[in-house]
């Protein structure tokens, strides 16, 4: 399996050279961890060879679930941010594109950790040692009023009218608590940006765009969809936001902070 995964990752590495035209982050390389049959296969990029190499295989002490797609620091790799996938990521070309989505998270984590540190919610969750809050925070996905506001926002996003979108965002934030609003902003920036870049890659390769999360009942994927679509509109108006993620974060806060 070591060689099979390595071959696939290096094929993606060849494709990645073309992606620098989409975003300069793809000039960088990130470690890849493949979880398969209770083992973790670890690969890292060799600048000298211009391709990935197998580093080591260890028992899966991270308990990676089936069909996992994630990015997180891995203690086996000196706590570097790694893209984590299972063998299902290599089933077909479309699945492979998700690995690039995870590279975006690695880049953001490495370059913009100071933004996460601005979050009140992060500090509150650290106090109670709740490390999985980004995945399982109790957002009111089923609250009727909130659902209505999300429906309005999604329909405004489809219209492409920025002023309509911003009005819908103000209304949404006024129906959320301060903490819920901060959670929304963080995830629409973090997950929305990765989805936004993923969809630029899909466009490049002629794949269908990813809009998962755009219909009720809502779950965490609504942040990917609303964030990605809003970021697309903002970048259309202010092209520098495509690469200036700090400015982008400050921009998406506006309706909540000044609403």
List keywords for this structure.
single chain; about 260 residues; alpha+beta; about 55% helix; about 15% strand; globular
| Number of DSSP E strands | 5
Q: Structural class, please?
A: alpha+beta
Order of neighbouring strands in the sheet with most strands: 3-2-1-5-4
Radius of gyration in whole Å, from Cα?
Answer: 19 Å
Low-confidence sequence ranges? none
Number of helices: 11
- Estimate the helix proportion, in percent: 40-55%
Instruction: Assess the beta-strand content as a share of residues.
Output: 5-15%
Element-level helix/strand string: HEEEEEHHHHHHHHHH
Distance between the first and last residues' Cα: 53 Å
Shape from CA axes?
globular
Mean pLDDT: 96
Largest sheet: 5 strands, mixed
What's this model, at a glance?
The chain has 259 residues and is an alpha+beta fold.
How would the blueprint of this fold be written?
Layout: H1 2-19, E1 32-36, E2 39-46, E3 51-59, E4 69-74, E5 80-86, H2 93-111, H3 113-116, H4 120-127, H5 133-136, H6 144-159, H7 162-174, H8 178-204, H9 221-237, H10 245-252, H11 254-257
Parallel strand pairs: 1-5
Antiparallel strand pairs: 1-2, 2-3, 4-5
């Amino acid at each position: 399996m070591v060689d099979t995964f390595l071959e696939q990752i290096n094929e993606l590495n060849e494709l990645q050279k073309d992606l620098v035209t989409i975003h300069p982050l793809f000039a960088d390389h990130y470690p890849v961890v493949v979880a398969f049959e209770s083992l973790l296969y670890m690969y890292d990029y060799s600048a000298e060879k211009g391709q990935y190499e197998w580093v080591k295989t260890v028992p899966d002490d991270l308990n990676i679930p089936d069909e996992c797609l994630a990015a997180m620091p891995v203690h086996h790799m000196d706590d570097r941010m790694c893209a984590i996938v299972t063998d299902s990521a290599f089933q077909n070309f479309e699945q492979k594109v998700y690995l690039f989505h995870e590279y975006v998270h690695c880049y953001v984590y490495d370059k913009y950790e100071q933004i996460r540190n601005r979050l009140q919610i992060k500090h509150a969750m650290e106090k109670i040692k709740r490390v999985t809050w980004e995945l399982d925070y109790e957002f009111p996905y089923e609250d009727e009023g909130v659902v209505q506001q999300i429906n309005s926002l999604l329909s405004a996003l489809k219209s492409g009218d920025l002023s309509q979108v911003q009005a819908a965002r103000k209304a949404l934030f006024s129906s959320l608590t301060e903490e819920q609003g901060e959670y929304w902003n963080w995830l629409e920036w973090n997950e929305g940006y990765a989805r936004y870049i993923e969809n630029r890659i899909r466009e490049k390769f002629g794949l269908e765009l990813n809009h998962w999360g755009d219909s009720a009942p809502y779950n965490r994927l609504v942040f990917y969809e609303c964030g990605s679509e809003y970021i697309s509109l903002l970048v259309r108006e202010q092209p520098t936001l495509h690469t200036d993620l700090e400015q982008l974060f400050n921009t998406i806060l506006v309706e909540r902070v000044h609403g």
